[in-house]
Amino acid sequence: MLAGELNKHMKGNPIVMGFDDATHQRYGASTTQIIGVVCQGTRMVDTVRSEIDVDGNNSTDVLIALARLKEKHVQYIITDTITFGGFNIMDMKRVFQEVKKPIIAVVDREIDLDSVKNALMKKFPDTFKEKYKLILNAGNLYQAAVKTAGGIATLYFHAIGVNTDEVEVLLNKTCIDSKQPECTRLAHLIGRLF
Question: Is the distance from CB of 83 to CB of 52 less than 8 angstroms?
Fold first, then answer.
């Protein structure tokens, strides 16, 4: 399907649920908040939140539970990267399988997998393989061009349950001035309050 046809096919204001974590101290804090913001297009209509472990393994379970609170209306899930609360890495495939909604993890720059792997090995010498596998399971990192107030910006993303052309249309429908989708941008701003 061509981008123009996708644009007509996709609802004018798709209902998306964006997730980001709250600000947390890298050292000392054992938990932080994960914030979910539901937007219809770029307009915020609802929020949810819960707690996750910093550098833990429960972000997938918490994200699934929060998404299920709004799954009746939400069409897409968008996350700010696949990591929350430090290295609490989400299993994108499992979120898609259990919630049955396309999931997109946006990143503002390309990822150096070797650097990430080295950081995981240093911080989690006994369990880094499991965490690294979750990163690899997110699949390829794709590139999208997003229209912003300052011109065309480049954004990167992982996507499961949706093709890349549809993701690019979706991102252009859910961004306003920033290249960050409004749902994840608002989740980030709310998270700064905690």
Answer: no
C-alpha distances (whole Å) from 159 to each of 70, 95, 97, 125 are 20, 12, 13, 29
**Structure confidence at residue 177 as a pLDDT band (50, 70, 90):** confident
Domain ranges of the chain: 3-191
pLDDT per residue over 15-50, tens digit each? 999 999 998 765 667 999 999 999 999 999 999 999
Question: Tokens 């069409």 sit at which residue?
Answer: 75
- CATH for 3-191 is 3.30.2170.10
C-alpha to C-alpha distance for 50 and 72, rounded to whole angstroms: 19
Euclidean distance between CA atoms 25 and 93, whole angstroms: 28
Using alpha carbons only, what angle is made at residue 136 by residues 135 and 137, rounded to the nearest 5 degrees?
A: 90
pTM score, two decimals? Answer: 0.92
